[in-house]
Amino acid sequence: MKRRKESISSIKELFVCIFVLLLFLFTYFASGKHDKNTANVMLENINEGWIAEDGQAVDLYDIAPGRHSLILDISDLDTDGKAICFKSIDTNFKVYASNGMIYDYDPVIPRLFGISYGMQYHTIAIPENSPFLRLYLEPVFANTSAGIRDLAISEAGQYMTNVFKRNLFSFGQCMTTMVIGALFVIAGVTGKIVMRSTGIDFISFGLTCVIVGFVGLNDTLLLQVLTGHPELIRVLEYMCLVFVTFPALSFFSSTTGESHSKLLSGMLVACLLNCVLQVGLTLSMLSDYYYLVYISQFIIVVGFSIAVVLVVRAARQGKIKQTLLRSVRWGLFACVLGAGIDMLRYYFFQSYGDLTFIRIGLLLLTVFMGIYLYTDHIDTLKKKQQESAVFASEIAEAFAKVIDMKDKYTNGHSERVAKYTAMIAKEMGYDDETVEKYYRIGLLHDVGKVGIPKAVLNKPGKLTDEEYDIIKTHTLKGHEVLKDISVVPELAVGALAHHERHDGKGYPNGLSGDEIPQVARIIAVADCFDAMYSDRQYRKRMDFEKVLSIIRESSGTQLNPEVVDAFFRLVEKGEIRPADNIS
Questions:
Q1: How far apart are CA 529 and CA 428, in angstroms?
Q2: CA separation (Å) from 301 to 188, 338, 339?
Q3: Would the CA dihedral through 241, 366, 15, 332 be positive or negative?
Q4: Pairing of strands 68-73, 57-58
Q5: Is CATH 1.10.3210.10 the classification given to domain 407-581?
Q6: pTM of this structure
């Protein structure tokens, strides 16, 4: 059996792994198709046709490192009201038309920000009747190629609209990631008790999501266009990469019970030293964030490796809940896979700040965490419900004993009536929860007797009419005691109506038939049976068959026929039988 369960678990995990891989592949192809369709709507793609000073044709997407001066013949193109539009990447440039220079992009960047502005979009109006355009390109970094992408002659507004359309998918991913992160941070700040009880560091996870989402926004260029300061966005991106490892590792450390690990403290020191190193070398102009990003990437790899070690160690030592461990394990797998794909894209496809697959990994981790939180919340509710049910039963039983202690002639009566009530309810087809509830109601059906004077309650002889009237008030007194218990409102109903009769001649309200609450109808039969078939100090119990005969005769008058039928089914099954035969 154990091997079978392990086999089923392995199959489930295999399916999860395949699902994650397919999701990454789907996202890759969906993103690529989207980019291709968007590029087709540009009016005039002018990547080709550029001529260098030596007369050779040049492909701007595959240009040699260093400075270049390129000319494009646009005499055959419709350029009225149009602009030359493109994205520049770490490249200063000048644009010339037939009347001279029309645009010069060589931003002055504070030394703290390094020598690069990162990426920016440009839309440059073309003067009327210009037969040619000339680009003078100068890469910011030595021995690198000029970065000019998405060239087109188009209306400026239409071009920028296409830019945002092309980046809409990534933008939506980034914003979703950041919003999720912000919600987790808020949940962590406002719900520290919940955070401790679930074993999840919401704040660390939220900060990781916010940082990764912001880094991804860099590649959409939305912030660069809106702020007009791409160099600021670039430096913030690098700082996010510097520090992202610490909250990510902090999250995995907390979920694996290693929140005080020296490895985590070491990672914080490493991130701080990396920050000081990068800022110091950039300020001293000995290097630049552009070259030092590899240090951040190395630290990220180390951080993920440590996270893997922590998860594996937690699994072996059984430190955390299996449900949480399963969610963390698959979430970590998705994040590592996403980070690996994005790093490969960075090195081999120049994806720059595009963290599409890391964001997918984080979203999957969020889904896994959400599943865990939901199941953990349900389990907690079930546990509390079970504890409350046990507590309520114990309180009801204790109260029932107090009642029976006061009435020396009916010792154990409340517990027996509750038992018979539960048996009849179950026979009538009620679910376990209702049966348990009716049992508790049966235990407290005579709670009002606490308010009856002992002299009347324990009188051995026949009661006078006045004394009987006092006894009958126990239903009203019981209702008064229990009416404010909102969790089980039927408690008060059972105490109030269990002496009502099917023919309407009962008390205190003279209810009849279906007017009597169902639980009260069941208690009435159970109460009637135990009253006749139990020993009292002033008399012995009646003969079992005699009791059954009286109950049968009372069906349709004093007692509800449906409940009486259920009672006799229990008798036929032997579940209610003569006391001498009860083991």
A1: 17
A2: 27, 12, 9
A3: positive
A4: unpaired
A5: yes
A6: 0.60
